[in-house]
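User: Show me a protein chain along with its predicted structure.
Assistant: Here is one chain, sequence first, then structure tokens.
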Amino acid sequence: MNTTMQSKPNSPVDMRKPTPEKAPVAEPTITSQNDLNLIREILVRPTEEINEERIVELVRMLEDQEDAFQKRINKLESQVKKLAGMADNNQLHAIAEVGNALISAGQKVMDLQEKLQPAATATKP
């Protein structure tokens, strides 16, 4: 028995070029913790700086909003005080008018009473 493989006369011949094995890319090795820290600083520092700038800008915006809000609150407080003063004045004026009206009504009642008293005494025998 023949154990060698014989080529078949009708099989196509493979014309592709054999691809060379790619050599593995050597990864750089980090030799110390300082190298790792340096790489981390190079990668992370720009992001940290941008974030810090954003935070500073947000704080500045909040402070501006706080100032504007405080001005509005102060204006509102002054308007409320003014309105309260006007309401007090209006209330005093209204009380005075009611008092004057009561005095006038009382005077008219007294005048009517005086007019009716002489007539009552004249009708009594």
